[in-house]
Structure formats: C-alpha cells, structure tokens
Amino acid sequence: MHNNSRVILPTWIxxxxxxxxxxxxxxxxxxxxxxxYTIVEVGKYYxxxxxx
Length: 52
Known about the structure:
By secondary structure, the chain is an alpha+beta fold. It is about 30% helix and about 30% strand. The chain contains two helices and three strands.
C-alpha cells in the first residue's frame, strides 16, 4: 500500500531561492513542518511525499 501525499509548496520557496542549493535549503526548512514525510518527487507547485 502506498502512503503518498501531495504537499502544496508556497511560492516563497522559489522566489527566495537564487541557486539550486538555496532552493533545497528552503524546501528542507518548509518540510520540517511535516514530521516523518520523505520527499519522493518535486513538481512546480507541490511535492509528492511518502508519509508514515
């Protein structure tokens, strides 16, 4: 059974990021709000995550 969820990402993740490293850092900071979620794939406005 797949326990995947889509997490809507706020636009500040892209607008505040000048480099790919900053994007990953901003994404990591935001995803701390979802304990236990593991990112599987990132789309334009969402992240597909595996949840416990």
